[in-house]
Design brief:
Strand content: 5-15%
Structural class: alpha/beta
Oligomer: single chain
Shape: globular
Number of strands: 14
Bound molecules: pyridoxal-5'-phosphate
Helix content: 40-55%
Order of helices and strands: HHEHEHEHEHEEEEEHEEHHEEHHHEH
């Protein structure tokens, strides 16, 4: 059976050596030395100023909303994983769904302003499948209306825009380090910001607001990453160049096999190559289902990211027709560092019949 993603497992002895270090130190969590090491290495690898590791990508979003003091309405994309919207609702915020561009699959910047009211406090766009949003246009709208911008950048690990990390954009960008993601720490995530003030606030918030013995500054939560997770991250990070190269090669192989039989996501002209997911757009949902089911017969499980559109999930109605139409026709093929050749062979044969 070949699933749509496969967790990358690093060298077991290397991981065990880190576990030995954890046992020797006796410190399992609370900003231990491995979390600190991982934060420094990740900030350098990605080219960002502050990177704070947390327990999950969802908590990264929730803490980001709190740290920036969001309230009322937040404009967001309905074409994403559930967490982009569920975290807003969980924090008592009202998501306002703005439709997407049918080619890039990202929030359509020209539609954002029509959703702004006097209750709007922020925009939460998603770099869908790692594809950088129109970051300049979004920032201009945010500046004009004094809104915060938080990018759900869960898919954009290692992506650059105009040769700089795309994570440098917005007041905060968040990452997910869940096992299914390109870089992982078993469970985990990160908050990225260039503001010293926001970074300091986030550090307090992820540990109950505790600033020292007998001292608590404001409300916080427990969103800390532990040492075992950081150890996994350090091992995976050692291999990230190889992982990225292999995935990139597989994307090139898919691109050749698929040719002009299906439509690809239109990627930002200023973006580095994407290899987080292998999304394709079918002409009709019926064709999508036909290919998906034919692959399943062969033990290959492609997945519909993101279906149904989140406006339907969380508002019980179609608010964004483009997102709904796209979500019915997008399928992600399996992508992993060691994709078995058989997947491309079977897909090639199937597509000849479509
Ligand atoms: C994976 C993902 C998340 C959630 O991350 P977790 O680490 O699973 O909490 C949020 N947004 C997007 C777009 C994701 O793909």
């Amino acid at each position: 059976m070949i699933q749509v993603t496969k967790t990358y497992l690093p060298n077991k002895d290397k991981y065990k050596a880190y576990v030995d270090r954890i046992f020797e130190s006796g410190q399992l969590t609370n900003a231990g030395s491995l979390v600190q090491e991982l934060e420094l290495r990740l900030a350098e690898h990605l080219g960002v100023k502050h990177l704070i590791c947390v327990a999950s990508g969802s908590l990264a979003l929730q803490v980001a909303y709190k740290a920036l003091g969001l309230e009322g309405e937040v404009i967001t994309s309905p074409f994403s994983f559930a967490a982009t919207t569920s975290t807003l609702l969980w924090e008592g915020l009202t998501p306002k769904f703005c439709d997407i561009n049918p080619q890039t699959f990202n929030l359509a910047p020209e539609l954002i302003e029509s959703h702004i009211t006097d209750k709007t406090s922020a925009i939460v766009p998603v770099h869908v499948f790692g594809n950088p949003c129109d970051v300049e246009q979004i920032q201009a709208i945010a500046d004009k209306h004094k809104l915060k911008v938080i990018y759900d950048a869960a898919h954009a690990f290692g992506v650059t825009y105009k040769d700089r990390s795309v994570l440098q954009h917005g007041d905060i960008s968040t990452l997910s380090f869940h096992s299914t993601k390109i870089f992982h720490t078993i469970e985990g995530g990160a908050i990225i910001t260039s503001s010293n003030e926001v970074a300091a606030k986030v550090r307090l918030m992820i540990n109950f607001g505790i600033s020292g013995p007998n001292k608590t500054e404001g409300l916080g939560i427990n969103a800390k990453m532990n040492e075992f997770e950081a150890a996994m991250g350090l091992c995976v990070l050692d291999d990230i160049a190889k992982i990225s190269q292999n995935r990139s090669n597989h994307v090139a192989e898919y691109t050749e096999v698929i040719g002009d039989k299906l439509t690809f996501q239109k990627t930002n002209a200023f973006s580095s190559k994407l290899f987080s997911y292998m999304p394709v757009l079918f002409d009709t949902e019926a064709e999508l289902l036909q290919v998906k089911e034919a692959l399943e017969v062969e033990g290959i499980f492609a997945r519909r990211y993101f279906y149904p559109s989140l406006d339907v999930v969380y508002s019980k109605g179609v608010l964004c027709p483009v997102s709904n139409a796209i979500s019915q026709r997008v399928l992600c093929f399996p992508l992993m560092a060691d994709l078995p050749k058989i997947v491309l062979e079977i897909l090639g044969k199937l597509l000849q019949k479509v």
